[in-house]
Amino acid sequence: MCAILKDILDYRMIRVVSLIIILFSCSFSSSAQVPADQLSLIKKKFSESNHDSTKLRLSTAIATGYRFSNIDSSLHYYNTALAIAEKLNSTNQKAYLLSLIGAVFLENGKLPESLAYQFEALRIGEELRDTVVTSNALNRIGNVYMELADYRRAIEYYELSKAQFWATGDTGMYHNEISNIGNIYSLMNQPDSALYYQKIVYKASLSATDRYDYTFTEIMFRYGNAFKLKQSLDSALFYYQRAIQEAQFDNDLRNLAMSYYSIAELYLELQMTDSALNYAQNAILTAEKISFKKIIRESALLISSVFKERKNYEDAYSYLIMANEVQEDIAGTKKLQELQQIILDEQERNKEENIQRIANQSRNRQLALLTGSSILVLIGLILFRNNRQKQKANRALKESISKLKSTQTKLIHSEKMASLGELTAGIAHEIQNPLNFVNNFSELNKELVDELKDAVAKNDQEEIQAILDDLHENETKIAHHGKRAEEIVKSMLQHSRTGNDEKELTDINQLADEYLRLAYHGLRAKDKSFNADFKTELDPSLPTINIIPQDIGRVLLNLINNAFQAVRETEKPIVTVSTKYLPLTPSKGGIIADDDSPKGIQITISDNGIGIPDNIRDKIFQPFFTTKNAGEGTGLGLSMSHEIITKGHGGTLEVESEEGKGTSFIFKLPITK
Questions:
Q1: Are residues 318 and 437 in the same domain?
Q2: 228 and 316 share a domain?
Q3: Are residues 625 and 652 in the same domain?
Q4: Is residue 475 domain-shared with residue 543, that is, in the same domain?
């Protein structure tokens, strides 16, 4: 649950409604309800408002308030908000609302409608490069596939959304995806994996400073599910009961219904059928309040099986009819046909995009081949003329040498420009988030000014003061995120500038962390299908050292990019950047070690990728040597990195690799006296 949802739960001051637009940046993982009297106040405000932007915010708040108590009303107000967003031509808010409507459809058992809305939200989010929309749409598509028992696809989408939540710093939703993956393993009856993932989330929740960063009810009953699979039934019952307490505290009817059903299943396994019936009936009563069809069906089947065992066939048949009716509504023949068509349409769209991408790659390779052939023909003509005329041959030789030097210079420049392009893509992603906040709060302030004018005209002093407080708070946030963007730009310009060979004191930990994130986002900007985990293990005792930061940054970018390329085919790809403070041993790089010698630092870039074959390991630092396809690389990245480290900074660069298991590039830099 996002922190802003706490504001929705506390309507003691109705002016909180003016901030509800920030809901568009939240994930809506909460199942809490809004009290009826407070919801009435918002509806009254909605009917009195004449501003479309205000009505958009209020209708979204009302829809959210009804989301887990009245599905029809929730959809009505979400659709009202969607119509206003389209009228205002607000594409990003339209995408947010499409995803929310799709989430309501899923909770109501309407899987085809849910999937169609999420695919549309994902498409718009990718066009706008809006990670809030795309990460939540990916999460909710995974939820649909989980309900369809297509567990492989569910995990694929959860992994994609998990990476985006991690990249944007949303730790609550990052752990929510880990919990979802653990839940998939529970559904696949793999207890060890299920317990492993749920334990990660449970431990993370214990250190949470904000209750609403995590959905505690879901964490508890999923932890209980994992223990139940391991046959630790006492532990399972303990966490199920904890889940019920958490759900009642939050008025979380969705997860309360699931917790009731989980305990009912446990009691049925223990052959305590009276308790199983009681909890299953509570699950149905709770689920019916929010039209939670999946739990209604599962609980009805459980009750039917108990009555059948007791030979109470009339009640058993009654509950079986209830379960079948719900099942037909959720996944009948017509629903399955609709789902199949939606999935086929999405696959066709992706297929067309891939065909276009492959065509572009083929055209580029053909152009590179044609260029290379032309150069070979030219060299052949020059050699032919050299054999016939000695004097002209000498002049042609000099010209060839000149052209070769020029070509080498251009290749080196091309390598530098490629690094700069990857750096730029990463910077664009880093700066996008604070700019989104600045734009959103600026837009909100425009609307608050309109409301302020109305309040001044009505001489409503209380409303005037409330709006002024909101304006002051929003301006503070604008200033904060503006300074954040300024710091990102200033820092990146410092590390990416060229033409300055002077060394300066630099924080290697900060440099390594920045270029790791920039490399990842640069690759994601070029290939949205790329996904990998990454982490840092940075020694806090590292001192600042004298280096040329843009050159060391280029080395980091080359090595990290190579690492990400190496893990593309790995099942659970991960790249690690670590640093440590250490005394240096004698080396060819010119570092002298004795008892009074200066210390040094070590930076290691590791991956769990394909590794480097033994037969080419000695060649990787040679200029122009590359294992990439024609047109994809110059073969200068590692040789330039080696030259920067050894000749430019008096350090060493080494590689350790095991084919099929991974590679580590290790470079050491001295700290001169």
A1: no
A2: yes
A3: yes
A4: no
Q: What is the pLDDT of residue 426?
A: 55
Within a domain: residue 365? no
User: Is 118 inside any structural domain?
Assistant: no
655, amino acid identity: V
What's the structural domain count of the chain?
3
* Cβ-proximal residues to 656 (8 Å cutoff; 6+ apart), any chain: 663, 664, 666
Q: What is the pTM of this model?
A: 0.46
Contacts of 646 (CB under 8 A, 6+ apart): 588, 589, 652, 653
What residues form DSSP beta bridges with 579? 603
Residues 479 and 517 in one domain: no
Asked whether residue 341 is domain-assigned, the answer is no
Low-confidence ranges of the chain (pLDDT < 50): 1-32, 332-333, 335-336, 339, 495, 499, 586-598, 630-631
Q: Rounded distance, CA 164 to CA 123, Å?
A: 16
pLDDT of 421: 55
Distance CA(385)–CA(395), nearest Å, equals 11
Tell me: do 533 and 559 sit in the same domain: yes
Neighbours of 534 (CB within 10 A): 21
* 131 in a structural domain: no
In this prediction, residue 114 carries a pLDDT of: 86
Question: In the prediction, which pLDDT does 339 show?
Answer: 45
Residue 383 is predicted with a pLDDT of: 67
Which of 96, 93, 95, 117 is closest to 105 using CA atoms? 117
For position 606, which CATH number holds?
A: 3.30.565.10
Q: What is the dihedral of CA 521, 523, 527, 531, to 10 degrees?
A: -70
Cα distances (Å, whole numbers) of residue 100 to 66, 97, 117, 486: 13, 5, 9, 33
For residue 98, the model assigns a pLDDT of 93
> Considering only CA atoms, which of 373, 388, 3 is closest in space to residue 170?
3
Q: Measured between alpha carbons, how far is 502 from 516 in angstroms, rounded to an integer? A: 24
The DSSP line for 565-604 is HHTTT-SS-EEEEEEEEEEPPP-TTS---STT--EEEEEE
DSSP strand pairing (599-607 vs 652-658): unpaired
